[in-house]
């Protein structure tokens, strides 16, 4: 890990913050590495029940660090650079290293809630789109900005943007690179909720989710993420399979008991 990302965990909620405020949390090589390592570590932590992803300082993320652009471009084009090659893939994920900073949040078994303030431009927007739910400040700004630099968005946007906005809107935003406000982002579907205090709102929801059965929440994320691309039979069979894995388990029984006894449940971490 590095000082590019800070993580603190309380009562099952991991508060993850991009931590390069002097550069509006712009993405350089160290930020790519830190975000991926953070996501991978959280995926292995059975005590984590929800994640909030936000940015320190005045912004969520201004996107690619223009000052580091040439270095990153060389990393993309240099087939001999090994681990430094942003197009390198591993057996653990379908995403390459550039895509993984956004896609890792979908690979996490627990819900990830984004909190967006300031700007989320280019790669910053794509990272935000990798979260499951997004709170955004009214005066925040978002843009699929890659066209400004003669590029296309390539950080897993094909697997995120198309599921939250209509195709014609996705095309308009990508072709033009225009900037949208927080209010318009919610209207279009880029964000879920408008909030004057997005981080606080995200944390509040995260703690609510953390109070539910962790196995049921994980199963729900698996079900809904799979259903997006599943056929009818596959989707229905997955519902049954996951429900069978939950019914009669200790946490499912505890959820029922706590409900009847009108008390807070005491759940065990998933095995």
Features:
single chain; 10 helices; Lyase 2-enoyl-coa Hydratase, Chain  A, domain 2; 271 residues; globular; alpha/beta; 2-enoyl-CoA Hydratase, Chain A, domain 1; three-stranded mixed β-sheet; 2 domains
In short:
This protein is an alpha/beta fold and 271 residues long.
Explain this structure to me?
With 271 residues, the chain is of the alpha/beta class. The chain folds into two domains: 5-209, 2-enoyl-CoA Hydratase, Chain A, domain 1 (Alpha-Beta Complex); 212-260, Lyase 2-enoyl-coa Hydratase, Chain  A, domain 2, CATH 1.10.12.10. The chain has helices at residues 29-43, 69-77, 97-107, 123-129, 167-176, 182-188, 198-210, 214-227, 232-246, 250-260, and strands spanning 5-10, 13-18, 50-55, 89-90, 93-96, 112-116, 119-121, 133-136, 141-143, 180-181, 193-194. The strands form three sheets. The chain has a six-stranded mixed sheet, with helices on both faces. The chain has a three-stranded mixed sheet with strand order 7-9-10. A hairpin with a 2-residue loop joins strand 4 (89-90) and strand 5 (93-96). The relative contact order is 0.12.
List strands and helices in order, with pairings.
Blueprint: E1 5-10, E2 13-18, H1 29-43, E3 50-55, H2 69-77, E4 89-90, E5 93-96, H3 97-107, E6 112-116, E7 119-121, H4 123-129, E8 133-136, E9 141-143, H5 167-176, E10 180-181, H6 182-188, E11 193-194, H7 198-210, H8 214-227, H9 232-246, H10 250-260
Parallel strand pairs: 2-3, 3-6, 6-8, 7-9, 8-11
Antiparallel strand pairs: 1-2, 4-5, 9-10
Helix pairs in contact: 1-3, 3-4, 8-9
